Amino acid sequence: MDIKDIKGKITTLSLIFGLLFTISGIIEITIGICSILGFEIKLPLFAGDAFGGLSLLAIGITYFLGVKKALSEDIRAVSYLFTASIVGLGIGIIAFLLLISNAMGFLLGFEDWEDWSIFSNLNVYLILGILAIIPYKIAKIIQSTT
Amino acid sequence: MSDRYEIALIGNPNVGKSTLFNTLTGENVYIGNWPGVTVEKKEGEFEYNGKKFKVVDLPGVYSLTANSIDEIVARDYIINEKPDLVVDIVDATALERNLYLTLQLMEMGANILLALNKMDLARTLGIDIDVDKLEKILGIRVVPISAIKKVGIEDLKKAISEEVKNKRKYNIKYPHFEPYIKKIISILQKDENLKKYNLRYLAIKLLENDKYVEDIIKKSKIWNELNPVLDSIREELSKKYGEADLGIIEERYKVIDNIVKEVVKKKSGKLTTTQMLDDVLTDEKVGILLLIPFLWMLFKFTFDVSAPFSAMIDYIFSLLGDVIKSSISNEFIASLLADGIIRGVGAVLVFFPILAFLFFAISFLEDSGYMARIPYIADRFMNKFGLPGKAIIPLVMGFGCNVPAIMATRTIENEKDRILTILINPLMSCSARLPIYALFAGAFFSAYQGLVVLSMYALGVVLALIIAKIFRKFIFKESPSYLIVELPPYQIPHLKVVLKNTWERVYDFLKKAGTIIVFGVILVWLLSVYGPSGYLGAEALTNPELLSNSWAAVIGKALAPLFAPMGWDWKACSALLFGVIAKEVVVGSLAILYGVGEENLSNIIVNAFTPVSAYAFMAFSLIYLPCIATLGVIRQEIGWKWAVFALAYEMVLAYIVALTITIIGNLIF
Amino acid sequence: MYPLAFAKEGEEVIVKEINAGYGAMQRLTSMGINIGSKIKVVRNQNGPVIVSARGSNIAIGRGLAMKIIVERENNER
Fold first, then answer.
1. Quick one: what percent of chain B has pLDDT higher than 90?
2. How many domains does chain B contain in total?
3. Residue B254: left if φ>0, alpha if ψ -120 to 50, beta else—which one?
4. Hey, is A53 helix, strand or coil?
5. Calpha distance B309→A105 (Å, rounded)
6. The CATH number of the domain where C38 resides is what?
7. In this structure, is residue B101 part of a structural domain?
8. CB-based contact, C56 to chain B, within 8 Å
């Protein structure tokens, strides 16, 4: 398969997901740093975990590097799309496990989970992680045609 | 005569040089020998636009460092005969390798034209070369050809006829070497006799320890001035690159790397999953970047997903303790069972879910193939601190808990590397230390709480890296072991394998480290309920009056003079003693010792400490000793000797750091 | 002949000398890298070098890669 035929598709996909992950990551990091400095900011979908935000940012940057490869017509653009999506998917799986585990703590009535509600785990990690299935599947299809 | 030019063909072996030579010259070939040696010399001729070109076929060489007769012949010809044009034939399918010779030709200051051969083959291999860009970067004319298919030959002839008159200026610079080159040239300039050579070439060759050039310069009058300068530069270079001449070689390859990155694109090809992942995950920069999400996932899975299971075990054991206390009438036995043994066993089992999740995750990553790549990715960065690449996993895990972190060092094969990684691990601030920071930061630095707490974590990391460097220098004198690791293809992990590995590791922990933890908890219980006057009763654990007569208090009082410079009273010292069980116990113990509930504790300690002594106390709590569980696991992994060593060095380090903070703090405030 | 650390990605080389200690030498040999063996450089940036030897990929620290002397495979295509 020649990169020229799929250049547009890969560029668009990588760009969209790069933006999603990067922006979410930056917001998450900002909230995290603010809470360290003593300003609590509450935003739905965001947990204020600077480490987690950095992870999202790292994945976003990987997507963007894929855009760069695609624009210069390098077949490895597919590799970047694929790998970034797998790692994003991993984040989603962990977020899902966290949801289940927290729900368990809540249902068993432990005090650390008193204030828990399902919305506190319906966050960017879960959503972006689930969405990453799309580019992952597409990258897989591209791979099988090479 | 003005319309007769001499050009030379040069290139690596097997680039299609002979084919091109025959294509250019046709029948008019003269075969002889190079003067003095038995290397064949081929000469031919062709005409273009009424101009005559004599073509000299130079031997096929990879470089011009004069390692072989072929290389010497080629170099001498270019330097001494000064052909009007050197046509460098380059294999488009292996541009990186071929450009090495090109750079050397450029260093010599020869007038060069690049013939990019095998372009057709490159295209079928999916390699795309941006000829215009290559021309621009190198500053020389580049003509794509295919000698076998006779494509582009007319273009080449035309280019040759134009370039023979053009003396081009090259743009290639060696960023890390330009200052040295400049310095040497400024001295070489003083000798008029050297003007016939390209001074830049002489300078580079001197940096490369080239004997031929050195012999030329030794005859010059500037040698005495140059020699000491050269020696000091070479010494500097050997420090940086191991050996001075390796430095310039590495620099050439770096320059080539950058050119190729700009110019060559692989456009298509077959992709396997392993290739795709490795394109990204083992990339020098992206690989490190993507380590962050992997570590985050490992961290979250180990500490957060496991949390309800830990809470369950905690709950069961405190329930068990209450049941025993209320059902056994003998108060001594009840307290021994509940506060000593059950609490001890609980302290061990609380780690069970965390460790099970950690080992599941690590086994998962191992079986997937990613784990084998981590040392590769982190090696360069971690080696700066004398640590192996794999040490990054235990260090990050240490922020959660040092016990699983130390067990995670098992992936490090070299024993010395592993001991070093274990020894510094307790300095990574585990989550149990957070309550101490939170208490003191809240009481004394409420406006900058977050920053103060963060500074503790930073202090831990900085100390760990410094200590690693020091231990590497004085205790483990060899450098981190050579990395040799197989990178297996990626695969979806087998659940069975992962579960089996997980269980084996957790079982090992329970069996070996478990006993020492139980023993330690019982010992601290004994120190609290007994005093010089004998048995004090189980209330001592909740009653400050009674507790002040216990052995724990006696030890605290005995230690107090030692910590007087920091301004801590005996109660603070006793609390630190209790912290041996687990560091979060320090807070509860302070509450008992000061005779207040934990919620009012901050009001009391504001009077007992100053901001400086409080900060010193926080730092001391961070460093002073690994908790019993950590100590137990260190002993299990690397033996008593090292466990004691860890304890001793951390005590000394903690004391030094706390004292330093006190002294500096008191100077400022 | 030059150190493996200077070989280029995609290049096929033959191992000529290994100037490392006994331990590292044994380790390399056991993984299919000995004098005379043909290896392909898969990745070589500033860190360790990844080579493909007898069908498996092996990462070699840069320090060690400086001590493995290789020569280019001549008969390309």
1. 19
2. 2
3. alpha
4. helix
5. 8
6. 2.30.30.90
7. yes
8. yes
Residue B38 banded pLDDT, cuts 50, 70, 90: low
Query: Helix or strand or coil: residue B554?
Result: helix
d(CA B434, CA B450): 11
- Domain ranges for chain A: 3-140
For residues B379 and B479, give the distance between their C-alpha atoms in angstroms, rounded to a whole number: 12
User: Among the three residues B138, B163, B188, which one is the final residue of a domain in this structure?
Assistant: B163
Same domain? For B202 and B138 the reply is: no
| Token duo for residue B160 | 């040759």
What chains are in contact with A, requiring at least 3 Cβ pairs below 8 Å? B
- Looking at per-residue pLDDT, the higher value among A55 and B434 belongs to A55
**HSE toward the beta carbon, residue A83, CA cutoff 13 A:** 35
Mean pLDDT to the nearest integer, C15-32:
76
Q: Where are the beta strands (DSSP E) in C4-72?
A: 12-18, 38-44, 49-53, 56-60, 68-72
Residue range B264-282, pLDDT digits in tens: 877 666 678 888 898 899 8
Count the Cβ atoms, other than its own, within 10 Å of residue B54. Answer: 18
Flag if C58 and B485 touch (Cβ within 8 Å). yes
Picking from A14, A21, A83, A99 by the largest number of B CB atoms within 10 A of its own CB, the best residue to mutate is: A83
Query: For residue C13, what are the domain limits?
Result: 2-72
Pick from B93, B482, B485 the residue to mutate for testing the C interface (most C CBs within 10 Å): B482
Mean pLDDT on B362-367: 86
> Which residues constitute the domain of residue B110?
4-163
Closest residue in C to B95 (Cα–Cα): C8
Residue-wise pLDDT for B540-573, tens only, equals 777 777 888 888 888 888 988 888 888 888 888 8
Give yes or no for residue B2 having a pLDDT over 60: no
Residue among A37, A74, A143 minimizing CB distance to B276? A143
Out of C3, C27, C74, name the one closest to residue B14 (CB).
C74
Residue B19 lies in a domain: yes
* Whether B97 and C8 lie within 8 Å, measured CB to CB: yes
